[in-house]
Amino acid sequence: MLIYAHRGARGYAPENTMAAFAEALRLKADGIELDVHLSRDGHVVICHEHTIDRTSNGHGWIRDLTLKQLKSYDFGSWFDRRYQGQSLVTLSEFMAWFTPTPLMLNIEIKNGPVIYPRIEEKIIAILQQFNASGRTIVSSFFHPSLSRIKELDGTLKTGILFECRPLNPLQFIRPTKADYLHPCWKSLDAGWCPAALAAGIGIHAYTVNTKEEYRFTAKMGARAVFTDYPDRFNTHAGPQ
Ligand code: G3P
Ligand code: CA
Q1: Which of 45, 142, 153, 216 is deepest in the core (most CB within 10 A)?
Q2: To test the ligand 1 pocket, which listed residue (161, 164, 187, 225) has its Cβ within 8 A of the most ligand atoms?
Q3: Which residues of the chain fall short of a pLDDT of 70?
Q4: Separation CA 144–CA 178 (nearest Å)
């Protein structure tokens, strides 16, 4: 089982900051999951929500703020005063840190071109600049974004995010040409999981935070989990 640190090791450090990413590396996660948006001036930036209200001392929609404005806020203190001064991270800044590490990467596109024009092109350009496409998966709940990724770079791996336990998640694969299914772990069941595995579609489940959830997810055949606590499951001796 592969362990992806969800938004960095967000159980231990403020999510989607360099502190959380460094913690994921320290805890020997196999990979990092992060979420991206576009700033008003077109930079790919890392944050979970469309606004910065919950995770910073600022306020507003990311798409309405320039990178300079976004960088002026503190993204660490809300979690713990020890993290005061953590700033919003651009995808390029993250990649400069990530490149020499052994980590894998899952980039989640939040909402895609409906809100962020050409975000897929920008992500691909950054991955190519850092020669990281081969160890990256791009995922999204907005599946047309994943179709667009495949149009732009057919070799880049993509994962279909879904939450609501659809009857047959395999139906998402053909129109998007996606490589993986990324369900909420609660959506796993003995019906579609074996069918996905038989079709060669890997299952990567989120957000698995307890040992019970992990055991169930493993039993359903998932090959990776996204977790806020990448040190919790002691899986590194196990098969990938
Ligand atoms: O990639 C899995 C997970 O991150 C999706 O949900 O809301 O945590 O971005 P969310
Ligand atoms: Ca995410």
Answers
A1: 45
A2: 161
A3: 235-240
A4: 11
Which of the residues 37, 43, 48, 182 is marked catalytic?
Answer: 48
Say what the pLDDT of residue 114 is: 81
Concatenate the DSSP letters of all residues of 177-212 into one string. T-SEEEEBGGG--TTHHHHHHHTT-EEEEB---SHH
Tokens encoding 85: 């001064």
Which superfamily does CATH assign the domain made up of 2-227 to?
Phosphatidylinositol (PI) phosphodiesterase (3.20.20.190)
59 in catalytic set: no
Q: What pLDDT is attached to residue 166?
A: 79
d(CA 44, CA 26): 25
- Percent with pLDDT over 70 in the chain: 98
Q: How far is the CA of 226 from the centre of ligand 2 (A)?
A: 9
Place of tokens 């980039």: 107
Annotation says 6 is catalytic: yes
Token pair 């600022």 is at which residue? 58
Q: How many residues does the chain have?
A: 240
What's the 237 CA to ligand 1 centre distance in angstroms? 26
Domain boundaries, the chain: 2-227
User: Residue 206: CB within 6 Å of ligand 1?
Assistant: yes
